[in-house]
C-alpha cells in the first residue's frame, strides 16, 4: 500500500471512529479521494503533500468531465467538502503543511457551470477553430485576445486598431466609467494581430461582421456558444468566462492579487493604487512570467 493510500485508509477510519459520517458517507469519501489520487498520479504526483494548485485545478477539470456529461455543481461542491476535510485531517496530524484547496470557492449552487474555464477546457475551445474559414479565423483571434487581455465583451466589441500598439505590445482599453487601462498581450499573438490588421485603417473596428460593421456584444455571445456546441464542449459558455479565466489562471500561476486587479481595471483599484503602485515594467514582467498563454510554447501546444 502506497503512502497516499495509507493516508486515505487512516482518514476513513478516523471518520468512522469519530462517528462523523454514515457508511454511505464514508464510501462517498473513499470514491472521491481515490478519484483525486488517480488524477494526481496521471500528473506525476504520488502523495497528497506534493499536490500543487495548478495540478489540482487540472485534476478537478478531469474529475468534472469524467463521464458522459459534466458533473453538476452540487456534486463538485460535495467533492470539495471531502477534499477540504481530508486536508484538515492531514494538517492536524502533521501529514501535510498546507492545503491546496485554500481559497478555492465552492461551485455556485444555482449555476450549471463555473464562471471560468479550466486550462484544458480553454485549450480545447480555442484549438477547435478552422482557421481556413474567415469567420472562424476572426473568432479564434477575438476569443484568444479576450482571454489574453481579460477583456469585457463590450471592450472587445469596441476595439479599433488605434487601440493596439504592436511596438509596445499593449492594448489601451477604455473600460467601465471611461477609465483607461493598459494590458499586455503575448509576444506570439503580435504576429497574428499584425497579419489580421493588413489593409485596415486605425479607426476601423478590429472585429467586424460580413457586412464590415463592428461585431455586437450579442453576436460575440452567440458565436461563442455556437462554437462550443460545434466542438462538443458540453457547457453553456459566455464571454465573461474568458475574463474570469484570465484572472483565475494568473493567480493560479503566481501573480499577486494587486497586479491582477490592475490588469482587470477593477473600479476599486483607484482607491488602492496610491498605496500599491505597480509600474508598467512590473506589469509586463508579471504577465510574461505568470500568464500561461504568454509562454512561447502555449500556441504550438494548442
UniProtKB/TrEMBL annotation:
Matching CDD domains: INT_XerDC_C (cd00798)
Positions of the Core-binding (CB) domain: 2-91
One of the GO BP terms on file: chromosome segregation
Keyword tags: Cell cycle, Cell division, Chromosome partition, Cytoplasm, DNA integration, DNA recombination, DNA-binding
Transmembrane segments: none
Gene3D superfamilies xref list: 1.10.150.130, Intergrase catalytic core (1.10.443.10)
Subcellular location: Cytoplasm
InterPro entries: CB, DNA_brk_join_enz, Integrase-like_cat_sf, Integrase_catalytic, Integrase_recombinase_N, Integrase_SAM-like_N, Tyrosine_recombinase_XerCD
GO molecular function: DNA binding
Tyr recombinase domain location: 112-288
UniProt entry tagged with the keyword Zinc-finger: no
Superkingdom as given in the UniProt entry: Bacteria
GO cellular component: cytoplasm
Full protein name: Tyrosine recombinase XerC
Species of provenance: Ileibacterium valens
Amino acid at each position: 500500500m502506497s503512502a497516499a493510500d495509507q493516508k486515505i485508509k487512516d482518514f476513513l477510519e478516523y471518520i468512522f471512529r469519530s462517528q462523523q459520517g454514515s457508511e454511505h458517507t464514508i464510501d462517498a469519501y473513499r470514491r472521491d479521494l481515490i478519484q483525486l489520487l488517480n488524477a494526481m498520479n496521471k500528473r506525476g504526483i504520488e502523495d497528497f503533500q506534493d499536490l500543487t494548485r495548478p495540478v489540482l485545478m487540472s485534476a478537478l477539470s478531469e474529475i468534472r468531465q469524467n463521464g458522459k456529461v459534466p458533473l453538476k455543481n452540487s456534486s463538485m461542491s460535495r467533492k470539495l467538502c471531502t477534499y477540504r476535510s481530508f486536508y484538515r485531517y492531514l494538517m492536524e496530524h502533521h501529514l501535510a503543511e498546507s492545503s491546496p484547496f485554500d481559497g478555492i470557492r465552492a461551485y455556485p449552487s444555482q449555476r450549471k457551470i463555473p464562471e471560468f474555464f479550466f486550462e484544458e477546457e480553454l485549450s480545447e475551445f480555442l484549438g477547435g477553430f478552422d482557421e481556413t474559414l474567415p469567420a472562424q479565423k476572426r473568432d479564434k483571434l477575438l476569443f484568444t485576445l479576450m482571454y489574453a487581455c481579460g477583456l469585457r465583451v463590450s471592450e472587445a466589441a469596441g476595439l479599433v486598431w488605434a487601440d493596439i500598439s504592436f511596438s509596445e505590445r499593449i492594448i489601451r482599453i477604455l473600460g467601465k466609467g471611461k477609465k483607461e487601462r493598459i494590458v499586455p498581450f503575448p509576444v506570439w499573438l503580435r504576429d497574428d494581430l499584425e497579419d489580421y490588421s493588413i489593409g485596415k485603417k486605425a479607426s476601423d473596428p478590429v472585429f467586424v461582421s460580413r457586412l464590415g460593421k463592428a461585431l455586437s456584444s450579442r453576436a460575440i455571445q452567440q458565436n461563442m456558444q455556437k462554437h462550443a456546441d460545434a466542438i462538443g464542449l458540453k457547457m453553456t459558455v459566455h464571454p465573461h468566462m474568458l475574463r474570469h479565466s484570465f484572472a483565475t489562471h494568473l493567480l493560479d500561476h503566481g501573480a499577486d492579487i494587486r497586479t491582477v486587479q490592475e490588469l482587470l481595471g477593477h473600479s476599486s483599484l483607484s482607491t488602492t493604487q496610491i498605496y500599491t503602485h505597480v509600474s508598467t515594467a512590473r506589469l509586463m514582467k508579471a504577465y510574461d512570467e505568470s500568464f500561461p498563454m504568454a509562454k512561447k510554447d502555449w500556441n504550438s501546444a494548442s
